[in-house]
Design brief:
Structural class: alpha/beta
Helix content: 25-40%
CATH superfamily: Alpha/Beta hydrolase fold, catalytic domain
Largest sheet: 8 strands, mixed
CATH topology: Rossmann fold
Strand order of the largest sheet: 1-2-4-3-5-6-9-10
Number of domains: 1
Number of helices: 10
Radius of gyration: 18 Å
Order of helices and strands: EEEHEHEHEHHHEEHHEHEH
CATH class: Alpha Beta
């Protein structure tokens, strides 16, 4: 998986309530920071490497925690695939925050991580100084869901990093149409780990099972009450201009419910921006500076 050229974080290991060994990157930030810490939560098949750039950037002013949810990255895989749901992940996150003694914080949630942010803020609204929702809302566009279901959990014959890059590009080029070869390699190294010299996806294929189960709560049927529950919190919504998961209609409804929500659309990006894009970085810096300081 992708690491910074100079490791800017500490490895943090903790145990879930049901005994799994879970992992997070802990970027300490400056000793004199007055800004709230930031928790970064990734999407369905991603991991903490997704935030490698933005975490290092934000750690110039504050502490940043970037997690591997169970079944991803360096965290244990769950022997019970039914636990691969946002409700379980949220319990893991609260345990992590309590262990780290973080009473109040900011959140960046990409895709599934944004759904988790909504759940967490409904549970403990006073704990969150501000939330960035990255390309996610209460309505999930069927086109994007179908695309994700078409690849999640699938196993391909990958024998080299060239194979891995080609597969990654085939799946994700719709979201990153102007990526260079170097960017595709960096992106791919965040999605794969090496096993005896061969790249393998850095997530448990079984995590697809709850999503594909029509009776599962992996994707709750009505998310609007969750969003209404956080509508008065400081919010920033980031959307890829080419997104097939977050529609403009959904964005407009969100802005009606939460008139104070800030909005940034990232050009030439689909689902979901990597948050290293200049417009996204500027929007997050401005938002965090105003709601949290540091």
């Amino acid at each position: 998986m992708d690491d910074a050229p100079t490791k800017a974080y500490r490895d943090h290991w903790y145990e879930s309530a049901d005994g799994l060994r879970l992992y997070a990157r802990d970027y300490p930030g400056p000793a004199d920071s007055s800004g709230h810490p930031d928790l970064c939560m990734h999407g369905l098949t991603r991991n903490s490497a997704d935030f490698a750039w933005i975490a290092r950037h934000l750690a110039q002013t504050r502490r940043v925690i970037s997690v591997d949810q169970r079944g991803r990255g360096r965290s244990d895989y769950d022997p019970n695939a039914a636990n691969y749901t946002p409700a379980v992940y949220v319990e893991d996150m609260f345990k992590l925050l309590d262990e780290l003694a973080i009473p109040r914080l900011l959140i960046i949630g990409t895709s599934m991580g944004g759904l988790m942010a909504m759940l967490m803020a409904n549970r403990q609204p006073g704990r969150f100084a501000g939330i960035v929702l990255n390309d996610i809302g209460p309505d999930l566009d069927p086109a994007g869901l179908d695309r994700i279901k078409g690849y999640v959990g699938k196993q391909w014959e990958i024998n080299s990093w060239n194979d891995a890059v080609a597969q990654t590009r085939e799946i994700n080029e719709v979201a990153f149409p102007n990526y260079t070869d170097a960017e595709w390699l960096r992106f791919t190294r965040g999605l794969y780990r090496e096993d005896r010299g061969v790249p393998v996806l850095a997530y448990d294929p079984a995590l697809a099972q709850p999503m594909l189960d029509a009776e599962s709560d992996a994707v709750p049927p009505d998310l609007w009450p969750l969003f209404e529950g956080i509508a008065d919190l400081p919010l920033l919504l980031v959307r890829g201009a080419l997104s097939d998961l977050l529609s403009i209609d959904c964005v407009e409804k969100m802005r009606t419910i939460s008139p104070g929500m800030e909005y940034e659309e990232v050009p030439e990006r689909g689902h979901a921006p990597m948050l290293d894009e200049p417009s996204a970085v500027a929007a997050i810096d401005d938002f965090f500076g105003r709601v949290s300081g540091g």
